[in-house]
Amino acid sequence: MAIISEINPETAPASIQKIIADHLAEGHALTAEKRTLLHNAAAFNAVEAGSYALDDELQRLIGKRAADFFEYAISQTNGCLVCSIYFRNLLKKNGIDFDTFEFTKKEQVLIDYGQAIAEDPKHVPQELFDKLKANFTEEEIVVITAMGVMMIANNYFNDILGVTPDKLV
d(Cα 87, Cα 106) in Å, to the nearest integer? Predict the structure, then answer.
């Protein structure tokens, strides 16, 4: 059950309507998480704009599909229904069933890393770091990890405030 209501885009203050219009113009959807965050522009910009900027960089470095797999693995392991449904829908639109898909070696390393940091960020196995270093540059590992942290933050936000998941397609 949602702790905080979602804003109504039509009755939101003009400053929030501007953020919404810009966000939609960039091709993004207005999800339940965003409608909750939009109670405050700074909160929205910190969580969403920061995530999008980092995700764009991650996709530039490792590709969209690999980034989506990584982020979905974190959300699934974290148990965040909102983000899990979002990524499951995204993958489904691309004809990918995460449960039966055959991942590349690099994708599997990303999935394993996403699951590990979501499970216990203080105890990621050294063997996994060795695999990361064998497949990615230090810059890529920094961006991958930073995006992982942002995904965990998104997951916590949704879970703490009981954000209502968007529909599973």
Answer: 19
